[in-house]
Amino acid sequence: MPSGEAAMSPAGALPRRRAVAFIILLGVISLFADMTYEGARSITGPYLGLLGLTGTTIGIVSGVGEFVGYAQSVSVRDTSPISAAAIGRSRSVAIC
Protein backbone atom coordinates (compact mmCIF):
# COMPACT_ATOMS: atom_id res chain seq x y z
CA MET A 1 0.00 0.00 0.00
CA PRO A 2 1.50 3.37 -0.95
CA SER A 3 2.30 5.78 1.78
CA GLY A 4 2.97 9.47 2.01
CA GLU A 5 1.68 12.28 -0.19
CA ALA A 6 0.98 10.09 -3.24
CA ALA A 7 -1.47 7.93 -1.27
CA MET A 8 -3.43 10.91 0.08
CA SER A 9 -3.70 12.93 -3.13
CA PRO A 10 -6.00 12.12 -6.04
CA ALA A 11 -4.50 10.69 -9.20
CA GLY A 12 -2.75 13.37 -11.22
CA ALA A 13 -2.25 15.87 -8.39
CA LEU A 14 1.41 15.05 -7.89
CA PRO A 15 2.42 15.57 -11.56
CA ARG A 16 0.49 18.85 -11.59
CA ARG A 17 2.29 20.03 -8.44
CA ARG A 18 5.65 19.12 -9.99
CA ALA A 19 4.74 20.98 -13.18
CA VAL A 20 3.80 24.10 -11.23
CA ALA A 21 7.03 23.89 -9.21
CA PHE A 22 9.03 23.50 -12.43
CA ILE A 23 7.35 26.54 -14.02
CA ILE A 24 8.05 28.63 -10.91
CA LEU A 25 11.67 27.45 -10.94
CA LEU A 26 12.02 28.51 -14.58
CA GLY A 27 10.59 31.91 -13.66
CA VAL A 28 13.13 32.36 -10.84
CA ILE A 29 15.98 31.33 -13.14
CA SER A 30 14.74 33.78 -15.76
CA LEU A 31 14.58 36.53 -13.13
CA PHE A 32 18.20 36.01 -12.12
CA ALA A 33 19.35 35.78 -15.74
CA ASP A 34 17.56 39.04 -16.56
CA MET A 35 19.05 40.77 -13.50
CA THR A 36 22.53 39.65 -14.57
CA TYR A 37 22.02 40.79 -18.17
CA GLU A 38 20.57 44.17 -17.24
CA GLY A 39 23.28 44.71 -14.62
CA ALA A 40 26.00 44.02 -17.16
CA ARG A 41 24.33 46.29 -19.72
CA SER A 42 24.16 49.14 -17.22
CA ILE A 43 27.90 49.22 -16.58
CA THR A 44 29.14 49.14 -20.18
CA GLY A 45 29.17 52.94 -20.49
CA PRO A 46 31.12 53.60 -17.28
CA TYR A 47 33.45 50.70 -18.11
CA LEU A 48 34.24 52.13 -21.54
CA GLY A 49 34.77 55.51 -19.89
CA LEU A 50 37.18 53.88 -17.43
CA LEU A 51 39.12 52.57 -20.42
CA GLY A 52 39.54 56.16 -21.60
CA LEU A 53 36.94 56.48 -24.35
CA THR A 54 35.19 59.79 -24.84
CA GLY A 55 31.45 60.27 -24.41
CA THR A 56 30.99 60.51 -28.16
CA THR A 57 32.78 57.22 -28.76
CA ILE A 58 30.79 55.52 -26.01
CA GLY A 59 27.56 56.80 -27.60
CA ILE A 60 28.56 55.57 -31.04
CA VAL A 61 29.62 52.14 -29.76
CA SER A 62 26.40 51.78 -27.75
CA GLY A 63 24.27 52.95 -30.66
CA VAL A 64 25.89 50.54 -33.10
CA GLY A 65 25.43 47.71 -30.60
CA GLU A 66 21.73 48.52 -30.19
CA PHE A 67 21.29 48.72 -33.95
CA VAL A 68 22.98 45.37 -34.58
CA GLY A 69 20.86 43.67 -31.91
CA TYR A 70 17.67 45.16 -33.33
CA ALA A 71 18.62 44.29 -36.91
CA GLN A 72 19.31 40.68 -35.95
CA SER A 73 15.96 40.26 -34.20
CA VAL A 74 14.08 41.83 -37.10
CA SER A 75 15.88 39.76 -39.72
CA VAL A 76 15.25 36.49 -37.87
CA ARG A 77 11.62 37.37 -37.20
CA ASP A 78 11.01 38.35 -40.83
CA THR A 79 12.90 35.53 -42.55
CA SER A 80 11.82 32.59 -40.39
CA PRO A 81 8.37 32.20 -41.98
CA ILE A 82 9.89 32.46 -45.46
CA SER A 83 12.48 29.79 -44.79
CA ALA A 84 9.90 27.56 -43.09
CA ALA A 85 7.64 27.77 -46.14
CA ALA A 86 10.55 27.09 -48.47
CA ILE A 87 11.61 23.89 -46.74
CA GLY A 88 8.12 22.87 -45.64
CA ARG A 89 9.08 22.21 -42.03
CA SER A 90 7.68 25.00 -39.88
CA ARG A 91 8.12 23.17 -36.59
CA SER A 92 11.90 22.71 -36.98
CA VAL A 93 12.32 26.39 -37.90
CA ALA A 94 10.21 27.45 -34.91
CA ILE A 95 12.31 25.36 -32.53
CA CYS A 96 15.58 26.85 -33.76
Question: Can you lay out the helices and strands and say which pair or pack?
Answer:
Layout: H1 5-8, H2 13-42, H3 44-50, H4 55-87, H5 90-95
Helix pairs in contact: 3-4
Short description:
By secondary structure, the chain is mainly α. Helices cover 83% and strands 0% of the residues.
Q: Can you offer a commentary on this structure?
A:
The longest helix is centred in the last third of the chain and has 33 residues, at 55-87. The mean pLDDT is 81. The protein has helices spanning 5-8, 13-42, 44-50, 55-87, 90-95. It folds into two domains: 1-42; 53-96, no CATH class. It contains five helices and no strands.
Distance between the termini: 46 Å
Percentage of residues in DSSP E strands: under 5%
What is the CA-based Rg, rounded?
23 Å
Largest sheet: none
Shape call: flat
Estimate nothing, just give the exact number of structural domains. 2
Main features:
96 residues; mainly alpha; 2 domains; 0% strand; flat
